[in-house]
Amino acid sequence: MTQRLTPTAAFLLVIPPLMWSGNAVVGRLVAPLISPMTLNLLRWGIAFLILLPLARRVLQRNSDLWPQWKRFTLLSLFSIGGYNALLYLALNTSTAINVTLVGASTPVWMLLIGRLFFKVPVSRRQILGAVLSIAGVVLVLGRGDWEVMTQLRLVPGDLYVLLASIAWATYSWLLAHPTPESAAIRADWSTFLMGQIVFGLGWSMAFTAGEWALTPAHIDWSAGLVAALAFIAVGPAVIAYGSWGAGVSRAGPAIAGFFINLTPLFTAVLSSIFIGEAPRAYHAAAFVLIVSGIVISSRK
């Protein structure tokens, strides 16, 4: 893997933040209509059906997928099953803007996990970029008030996003270190994503079963909910995951992680248009810190 930010890699890595910002806004809109684990299960169930004509061969008995079931079980736990479920759970108690800005801590976890578990050195520029990202996160958590920052109390949604960020960082490093046996599956983005979806649906069904057994889970069907499901299954799921995998393979997870921090910009714009969550001054200041982190960390 060559950790170099080419124009192609940059283009591929911009697509997921755009899609995921839409995912956060739509998830916030439909939060009163459907329980979070159920939303995640339906999203990936639809994505499975979309990809089936393209990637059905990976489900055959003699596929290379089944001997690697342990790896794909792990990949799907940190992404499809865990990350997305935690994100939808967070949107029940936090705003779409806050959720995506707190998610700006992802580069920090990228660097830490890479250093601790994959022995990847961390440059001074990356450390500075991470510090700027942390500053942006703290600014959002404190709602732009220094007194609030000194008495910081995380709402449940903020904690869920932090856990989701750790899960996504772990997933990205696993992507960047494929096994030789997975080469045939990874050669086609649709088969690779389908392999993750198959095992991710198992996690999602388990989490959804627990949701319906332990909480007042619900679904209020409407045309709006159906449209929302169609969007999050196509854009934030199929298109974004395919682009992210290709971008990480070109630029490396450490650099790619900083592109996640573009999500708050797109989210702020979409939130102000569709759900009236107008950005505040501290959101703009946090975004400046986040973008600075991207620029500094990715420069040679």
Automatic annotation (TrEMBL):
It is a multi-pass membrane protein. Belongs to the EamA transporter family. The chain crosses the membrane at residues 40-59, 71-91, 97-118, 127-144, 159-177, 189-209, 221-242, 254-275, 281-298. The keyword Flavoprotein does not apply. This is DMT family transporter. The keyword Transmembrane applies. Residues 9-141, 156-298 form the EamA domain. PANTHER family: EAMA DOMAIN-CONTAINING PROTEIN, INNER MEMBRANE TRANSPORTER. InterPro entries: AA-Vitamin_Transporters (IPR050638), EamA_dom (IPR000620), EmrE-like (IPR037185). Keywords: Membrane, Transmembrane, Transmembrane helix. It comes from the Bacteria. It is found in: Membrane. Gene3D superfamilies: 1.10.3730.20. It comes from Rhodoferax potami.
